[in-house]
Amino acid sequence: MAFSTGNGKTQTSLADINITPLVDVVLVLLVIFMITEPVLQSGIEVNVPKTRTVSQITEQRMVVTIDREQNIFLNDQPINIHELPLALKRETTDPTHQAIYLRSDERVPFGAFATVMDAVKSSGITNVSIVTQPVETKPGSGE
Q1: Nearest to residue 100, comparing CAs of 74, 77, 80, 81?
Q2: Whole-prediction pTM value?
Q3: β-pairing, 62-66 with 72-74?
Q4: Total structural domains within the chain
Q5: Distance between CA atoms of 30 and 26, rounded to whole angstroms?
Q6: 1 — pLDDT class (breaks 50, 70, 90)
Q7: Distance CA 69, CA 136 (A)
Q8: CA 7 to CA 28: how far, in whole Å?
Q9: pLDDT 10s digits, 2-51
């Protein structure tokens, strides 16, 4: 913006805003959020089994996880198997209508999985969804 001083000279205003640093900061934040978003789903590393029928998770539920070393977690917090039913009862108001996700590493023995499932059922929760991954099909394999 230029204005005249009256003696024939013009001066420019120094009130222009430089938005380059703002754009730089926004782009850095965008990259950070893009990198950390997959980690926010669950902080526990679990290789869930692969199946042909997989439905998309669309609602927020409590998650019980069994990792490779057979450690048990309730919503990313470690928990003893004997404390799991009581903790699930505390978290729910109506266990008969409560639904949870059960994530288990594919290397976990079935006995450990069944023990956790029994603990979940003893809390009164009967709607349990087992989390799996879709089977990767190769192009042209006909699957």
Answers
A1: 74
A2: 0.55
A3: antiparallel
A4: 2
A5: 6
A6: low
A7: 26
A8: 47
A9: 556 666 666 666 667 788 888 899 998 888 877 766 555 555 666 666 66
Rounded to whole angstroms, the Cα distance separating 79 from 92 reads 17
Verify that 81 and 21 share a domain, yes or no: no
Tokens read off for 113? 């999985």
Note whether 75 and 102 are same-domain residues.
yes
Residue 77, H or E segment:
strand 77-78
DSSP string, 110-124: HHHHHHHHHHHHHTT
User: Which neighbouring-strand residues pair with 50?
Assistant: 133
**133-134 and 50-51 beta bridge pairing:** parallel
Give me the domain span that covers residue 68.
50-134
- Rounded Cα distance, 26 and 143, in Å: 43
Rounded Cα gap, residues 143 and 139, in angstroms: 9
**Which residues, 6 or more positions from 117, have their beta carbon under 8 angstroms from its beta carbon?**
102, 128
Rg of the chain (C-alpha set): 27
